[in-house]
Amino acid sequence: MAHPLLSNPFSKDTSNNIVNGSCLCGAITFTLTGAPSTTVLCHCLSCKKSSGSAFQANGFYENSQLTLSPDSTAAMKTYTDKSCDSSGTVDRVFCSTCGSRLFNRNPKYKDALIVNSGVLDLGDEGWREWKP
């Protein structure tokens, strides 16, 4: 059974949703099947520093919703962030070529994939509907 964080009773049934994403240089491409269980704006200091902004916009998905293109893993690198407000760690996955931040993984939520929203190819209509 998925962690309660991944079950949002207010999310629409969009199991047929397919969203593509990529890093800036295109070395990493992926597909997410289904809607995020929740979307959040994180204002912790680590996310601020990681994003270079006042917050980081994230969508929470189950790991099983992610399909990476075959050549993507060669460019993926992980930084284990130990400065999190939660006193735990967060693995921040990024592209080693262009530096785009892609996903976060928190060991507390083993089934969760936290996707940085900026790497999603949502199009104009999709961005109007993305709400934290």
UniProtKB/TrEMBL annotation:
UniProt KW keywords: Lyase, Metal-binding, Zinc
InterPro entries for the chain: CENP-V/GFA, Mss4-like_sf
Pfam family name, one: GFA
Occurrences of domain CENP-V/GFA (ranges): 19-131
GO molecular function: carbon-sulfur lyase activity; metal ion binding
Key word Signal present: no
PANTHER family, A to Z: DUF636 DOMAIN PROTEIN (AFU_ORTHOLOGUE AFUA_6G11530), GFA DOMAIN-CONTAINING PROTEIN
Family indicated by similarity: Belongs to the Gfa family.
Protein's name in the database: CENP-V/GFA domain-containing protein
